[in-house]
Amino acid sequence: MSLTRTLVYISGRRNNAGTQILLPLPSAAVLFLIHYCDCNLFELVFVDEETTASECVSVSFAALLATKHTFTDKHSCPHRCDLPVVCDDPVIRSGLCSSLRCLIKKCHANNPKKNLHDLLGFRGGSLKACAEASNESMTLK
Question: What GO CC annotations are associated with the protein (predicted)?
Fold first, then answer.
């Protein structure tokens, strides 16, 4: 993986007063991980998916002081994927587990002394995508 700045698209918007950011829980988890890893390899892009405040966690703008970030609307987002999305050219990862796993690996590659790969658990098995099965294979014959 390259160690250049990576775009991370997460759902979020400013509150009406403009003093806080409203984040759905998956986006809050991504933001927490980035701050926990203390890694400045990422640029956050908050995509307004028009979620209601009751579905969100409020986060102070102070949490973003050390992180480069921008805001955009849903229609301006270049990727038509479920958020969060990590754009690590030419690869695009979508979904919470894949995104968190990618962020952990990039942070660990940037600073191996922090042992951030331990966040992936025994043999790095945590946050792997689950197996996919079609409805047809699930029916009993």
Answer: cytoplasm
